[in-house]
């Protein structure tokens, strides 16, 4: 799942950056895409997640603080500062390990309402995805639709994710974010929510790394001495 999540990060980055791409077309009846890649870029999913972020703003702030506290505790266990916690380091400070376990349980409990709302939104998109897929398959005369992770190499033209996203946006322009009482998500929906979360996390990390790199390059360029102009 993590490997596949990384495979669709590039498409998500392109969508976030609003990079214009030409319409993709299938090649010789063969095309590639995946439900997760389409749902990540779905406008209904984006809008729903924004609503959820606003609705659970205080809980999200609390979760961020808890993750920072857990990171600090993990760093305190890493006594040799090698970025890894050995069994000996964990055994040497059992109280910190117990604190980490308690905070992990608190984190899971606090995040449950957010995960449930996200999964409910995603499940509504999944419910119509087969219709979306069939629509694009017929329009593009696709004979074989594969997941990108099943192919070692293929030209960009085989990727029909843009077409599927457009069809899904048209068929499901919005979704609800408040599940009805007693609602329980399907396993497929939970797995998709986890993949979407991993993709969004990877995108955020890559964007942060790029911003840091650009910020580091700017001072270096400013510090370069001006070159004398020769005559």
Protein described:
By secondary structure, the protein is an all-alpha fold. The protein has a domain at 2-59 and 113-213. Helices cover 67% and strands 3% of the residues. The chain contains 10 helices and 2 strands. The chain has helices spanning 2-7, 9-16, 35-41, 43-55, 57-77, 87-92, 94-127, 129-140, 161-171, 187-223, and strands at residues 30-32, 144-146. The chain starts with a helix and ends in an 8-residue tail after the last helix.
In brief:
The chain contains 10 helices and 2 strands, in the order H-H-E-H-H-H-H-H-H-E-H-H. With 231 residues, the protein is mainly α. The chain has a domain at 2-59 and 113-213.
Helices and strands in order, then pairings?
Blueprint (H helix, E strand, L loop, with lengths): L1 H6 L1 H8 L13 E3 L2 H7 L1 H13 L1 H21 L9 H6 L1 H34 L1 H12 L3 E3 L14 H11 L15 H37 L8
Helix pairs in contact: 2-10, 3-9, 3-10, 4-7, 5-7, 7-10, 8-9
End-to-end C-alpha gap: 62 Å
Alpha plus pi helix count: 10
Return the average pLDDT rounded to an integer: 85
Strand count, sense and barrel status of the largest sheet are:
2 strands, parallel
Residue stretches low in confidence (pLDDT < 50, at least 5 long) are: 1-25
* Shape descriptor: globular
How do the strands line up in the largest sheet? 1-2
Structural class call reads mainly alpha
Radius of gyration: 22 Å
Order of helices and strands: HHEHHHHHHEHH
Number of strands: 2
What descriptors fit this protein?
mainly alpha; single chain; 231 residues
């Amino acid at each position: 799942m993590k490997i596949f999540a990384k495979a669709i990060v590039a498409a998500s980055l392109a969508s976030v950056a609003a990079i214009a791409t030409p319409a993709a077309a299938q090649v010789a009846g063969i095309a590639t895409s995946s439900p997760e890649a389409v749902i990540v870029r779905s406008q209904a999913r984006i809008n729903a997640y924004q609503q959820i972020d606003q609705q659970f703003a205080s809980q999200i702030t609390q979760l961020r603080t808890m993750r920072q506290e857990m990171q600090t505790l993990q760093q305190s266990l890493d006594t040799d500062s090698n970025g890894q916690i050995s069994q000996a380091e964990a055994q040497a400070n059992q109280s910190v390990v117990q604190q980490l376990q308690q905070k992990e349980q608190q984190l899971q409990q606090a995040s449950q309402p957010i995960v449930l709302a996200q999964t409910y939104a995603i499940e509504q998109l999944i419910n119509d995805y087969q219709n979306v897929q069939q629509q694009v398959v017929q329009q593009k005369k696709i004979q074989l639709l594969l997941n990108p992770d099943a192919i070692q190499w293929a030209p960009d033209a085989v990727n029909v994710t843009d077409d599927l996203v457009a069809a899904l946006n048209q068929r499901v322009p919005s979704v609800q974010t408040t599940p009805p009482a007693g609602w329980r998500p399907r396993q497929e929906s939970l797995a998709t929510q986890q993949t979407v979360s991993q993709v969004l996390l990877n995108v955020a990390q890559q964007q942060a790394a790029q911003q840091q790199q650009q910020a580091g390059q700017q001072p270096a360029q400013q510090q370069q001495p001006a070159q004398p102009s020769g005559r």
